[in-house]
Design goal:
The complex is a heterodimer of chains A (117) and B (135). By secondary structure, chain A is mostly helical. Chain A has four helices and no strands. The mean pLDDT of chain A is 94.
Chain lengths: 117, 135
Amino acid sequence: MARRRAEPLVWLLFTSGGLAAALLFPVLLVLFGLVFPAGWVSAPAQAHLLSVARNPLTRIVLLGLCVLALFHWAHRFRYTLYEGLQLKHLSKLIIVGCYGGALVGSALAGYLLLTGL
Amino acid sequence: MSARYTEFHPRWYRPRMSVFWWVRRRSYLIFVLRELTSVFVAWSVVFLLLLVHAVSQGSKQYQQFLNLSSNPWMLALNVITLAFVMFHAITWFNLAPQAMVVRLRGKRVPRSWVAGVHYAGWALLSALAAWLILG
């Protein structure tokens, strides 16, 4: 029963995480993954990024993005393991690994964004 | 899964499927590649947190992060990640009209509008993020 009640919640986290990741990761990856490393545009100064990151709104947006995207991963990867690798018989282990991993990652993101900055 | 005991227990016929069932057809392959985008979404979170941590630690650590991200292996990984995340984003926005039925004054909003709003929001947020980062 507990699992059935949790299913709509993880589904909601999956869809909102998918949306958040689709909206924000492309631009971040283009800039920090490609444009700055390739030297097409020089990377912004650390002091500038720090002031942007310390803005409360930035912190909340980045934390929301990290938490939702992690649960998006957890939910989708769970079914990738079930169907892609046919590991449905390990379902308990997979559920603990996926959602547990997302929880640990969320806690780390919370620590870095709320107290570490 | 738990069948009741009967004297003549049926033997279940379950053909074994290959673990690589999805390489045989293009549509299956695309399905599995799309499922795999979640791994690259997770890596994007890790990469973002590495950046946040480096920025919070000072300019020396930030420079180390920049050096790490221009390492050829890292650059290759991030270009592949970008490709998968773009694949995720485009398939996500294209599917949004199917998942969301929006009604306005009792009439269903056309699918192209729902997708269009998503693409417009994507462009707007990307521009805003780039403007904030580049200063």
